[in-house]
Amino acid sequence: MSLSELLNTFRANDLSVAVPSGWMQGRTAYGGLSSAIALEAARTIEDDLPPLKSGQIAFVGPIAETVTAKRRLLRRGKNTAFVQVELESQGGIGMIASFIFMNGRQSSIAFDLVPNIELPPLPSDEETRSGPPEFFTSQLHYPDKRLELGKGNVHLANWHRLKEREGLDPMVELMAIGDALPPAAMGAMEKPGPVSSMNWQFNLLTDALETTDGWWWVDAEGHQAADGSSSQYMSLRNADGRPVMMGMQSVAIFV
Length: 255
What we know:
The chain is mainly beta. It has one domain (3-103, 123-253): Porin (Beta Barrel), CATH 2.40.160. It has three helices and 14 strands. It has helices at residues 3-12, 31-43, 170-178; strands at residues 16-18, 24-25, 28-29, 52-59, 66-76, 80-89, 92-102, 128-129, 140-143, 155-162, 195-204, 216-226, 229-237, 243-253. The strands form two sheets. The protein has a twelve-stranded antiparallel beta sheet with strand order 1-5-6-7-4-11-14-13-12-10-9-8. A two-stranded antiparallel sheet has the order 2-3. Helix 1 crosses helix 2 and helix 2 runs antiparallel to helix 3. It is globular. The two termini are 33 Å apart.
């Protein structure tokens, strides 16, 4: 089931949907899918919400089988709306998300200090692959391996896109792609082991959420790990290298 089909079912069933096996990562739904479902619930709470500006997502527990959203408009002002969403599944609350929607306004302050980086060319069809059908990476296209264990490299970056994007709101598509990489700390692992994202905070840098052929450059850079958790910076750039999203994530490590 594509993300667009899943979200259509979600809206038609009063914000409830069964998570297909092809969207799972272990015992929980892929975090990008859960985030996209939460955003879909938030952005449809009113018909005229401004563009998404920022969000904070707490991955409280596993989300599997049937997931149901509860949403609340916390505040609506002239330019800004705050919406909270809780996702529940058979294990109880699995996610609590807060989204900020905001219209642009006149300001004397403007600067852009996000560094430019040189990106590799977009992948050719011959370089593109997907994951196994029982794992969420089956819903994605990406080139080559995304992670090599034992190399000590805690800076992961690669092109990613959804295989099926027709009918998706651009903000929802970004949610589904922004968490596509493995946690950066896994690059320091000598052997596979369980990890779990705990919190994800992000800011949108532009309302122009456009790219070429669905490709986005996803970047995760670990900057600290100790006592069973790690912290990493995250970013998303379009095919022209323009940064569209910046964020941070906290990840639990069980090895």
